[in-house]
Design brief:
Blueprint lengths: L3 H54 L5 H11 L3 H8 L3 H6 L4 H19 L7 H13 L10 H13 L3 H8 L4 H18 L1
Helix pairs in contact: 1-2, 2-3, 5-6, 5-7, 5-9, 7-8, 8-9
């Protein structure tokens, strides 16, 4: 027969084992809760990012979407850094559509064409002569590496919506035509980055 002390000892052991199991289960539940919270936070960030992406695609202002995503980013250093790289003009006005760049390019094209065939130190008469030559000369039979041809290729790329290729061609230009297109190229680079 068992004594009362043995029964008490057995009950004490059973209680300790049950408490240990309950503590392990509570710890497991807590870990699961933390993982669940992280997953929810990740989903919220993804939703905020998709909202930012939609606003960008629709040409809307990005201020509200970037602010929401920054709040959700919390201590995510990489996401905060990337959001910090969005230019203020893009946040306030949204991303301009590709046609915006085509329109700006078309306004600069005549000047860039003329600059490609006019010496930078040319006199006024020399500049007028350069413009006259460019206006009369097409690109047929011209060396493909000639700036006139490159400028025309940029126009074709832009009319097809290929902003990246137009930038790649434009960034290879040198001299006067590069100077004329410098601000436009910087704006396009900002968009592409």
């Amino acid at each position: 027969r068992r004594t009362m002390a043995e029964d008490a000892e057995e009950k004490s052991q059973t209680l300790k084992e049950t408490q240990r199991k309950v503590a392990a289960l509570a710890e497991r539940i807590e870990r699961t809760r933390r993982v669940f919270e992280e997953v929810l936070l990740h989903q919220e960030r993804q939703r905020a990012f998709l909202h930012l992406q939609q606003a960008a695609l629709h040409g809307e202002t990005l201020q509200e979407a970037t602010t929401a995503l920054q709040r959700k980013a919390g201590d995510d250093v990489i996401l905060q850094h990337l959001l910090g790289k969005i230019p203020a003009s893009v946040r306030e006005k949204g991303l301009p559509p590709t046609v915006h760049y085509l329109t700006e390019f078309e306004a600069l094209r005549p000047e860039a064409r003329a600059a490609s065939k006019t010496a930078e130190d040319a006199s006024f008469a020399g500049q007028l002569l350069g413009r006259a030559v460019v206006s009369m000369v097409g690109t047929e039979g011209v060396d493909p590496s000639d700036p006139l041809v490159q400028i025309e290729r940029m126009g074709v790329c832009l009319s097809e919506g290929d902003l990246r290729q137009a930038y790649a061609i434009g960034s290879q230009l040198e001299g006067g035509s590069r100077a004329v297109l410098a601000d436009w190229l910087a704006e396009v680079k900002e968009r592409l980055d």
